[in-house]
Design goal:
Ribosomal Protein S8, Chain: A, domain 1, single chain, Hypothetical Oxidoreductase Yiak, Chain: A, domain 1, 10 helices
């Protein structure tokens, strides 16, 4: 088991050794740790070596600020210049919350952000302040999901995360508009494991749970959310994410970027600008309890609200330590050795 504060300090120190200032290094380390605490292992500390590699080859910008493209009060458009994604998003959240308090909502788009890690990692802090948060991203360089009915990959998994305040713990949703994520497919292929379900479409149009089909020549693709049965819904939602992120952000696939990055859409909503925070939380708490009281199909598997398992795991790991995957431990040890930072 690994102590959370020790992991935070290790990650921040390595990132600073790789060239980031203290503030940017902290925001990356904090978001990667939060993702790990919530159980998103492919988008937690496993990303640290990849981020450091990006810094080493100057594909992640180390110094500077986001460039203002447009400001219309409740709406803000930024150019992130491939600066660290978690730092850009956290700064955007801070600004959007101020604007939501003033206007009822604050919307920020970021073009050319670097990768922003686990979207769920941003939700709890904002929702516990009484704001609703919507966060979506796409990677204009990445083409791993084929449109419904097609074989050729066109877009990325396009995740959407939503944090909803209630009278108790927030509801935290983090879903991709594809059947699974790039990270899980890559990890399953690396460890030679099958996927839990037939989430891959091979190059002949057959569904499979073998990640090797994704890496074949020509490559397979990740199915849209809904699979062959109702993947037209996932495809439609993917189009929406592409429009919110790349189209509104003003930079996307038409530019054919070559760097690992993200187009980001962030919206913060203040219930005080609508029916009021008390009414909002009363409704969300009632709805949550109605769902939880639904008679379960299997008595030993009651209904669980999105985010509940992650929050429970976070509490457990903060108290007892984090149980990292062996491959993550090995990668962090190698990184520590490289930069002279102890990893125990």
């Amino acid at each position: 088991m690994r102590d959370s504060q020790a992991l935070l300090q290790f990650s921040q120190t390595v990132l600073q050794q790789a060239g980031l200032d203290e503030e940017k290094a902290f925001h990356i380390a904090d978001i990667l740790l939060e993702g790990e605490l919530l159980g998103h292992r492919t988008h937690g500390l496993q990303l640290l070596p990849a981020y450091v590699a990006e810094l080493e080859k100057d594909s992640m910008t180390k110094v500077g600020e986001a460039k203002l493209l447009n400001d219309m009060g409740a709406v803000l458009a930024l150019d992130g210049n491939y600066l660290p994604g978690p730092w850009l998003v956290n700064k955007a959240i801070e600004e959007a919350c101020k604007r939501a308090a003033q206007y009822g909502t604050g919307i920020v788009t970021i073009q050319k952000s670097h990768h922003i890690a686990c979207l769920a990692a941003y939700l709890e802090k904002v929702a516990r302040q009484g704001f609703m948060i919507l966060l979506a991203c796409s990677d204009p360089r990445n083409k791993t999901v084929a449109p419904f009915g097609g074989l050729t990959s066109v877009y990325s998994p396009d995740p959407l995360a939503v944090g909803i305040p209630t009278e108790s713990d927030p509801i935290m949703i983090d879903v991709s508009m594809s059947a699974t994520s790039n990270g899980l497919v890559t990890r399953s292929h690396r460890t030679q494991e099958k996927l839990p379900h037939d989430w891959i479409l091979d190059n002949q149009g057959n569904t499979t749970n073998d990640p090797a089909a994704f890496f074949a020549t020509p490559p397979g693709s990740i199915l849209p959310l809904g699979g062959l049965d109702s993947g037209y819904k996932g495809f439609g939602l993917g189009i929406m994410i592409e429009a919110l992120t790349s189209a509104l952000g003003g930079h996307g696939r038409s530019e054919m970027p070559t760097l690992w990055g993200a187009s980001v859409y962030l919206q913060i909503i203040s219930p005080k600008g609508f029916s009021g925070e008390e009414a909002f939380k009363r409704e969300t708490e009632y709805f949550k309890n109605q769902c939880l009281n639904s008679i379960p199909i299997h008595l030993d598997k009651p209904v669980r609200m999105p985010g509940t398992r992650g929050l429970e795991l976070k509490k457990q790991q903060l108290e007892s330590g984090l149980n990292l995957l062996p491959e993550t431990v090995n990668a962090l040890q190698e990184l520590g050795n490289k930069y002279g930072v102890g990893f125990n």
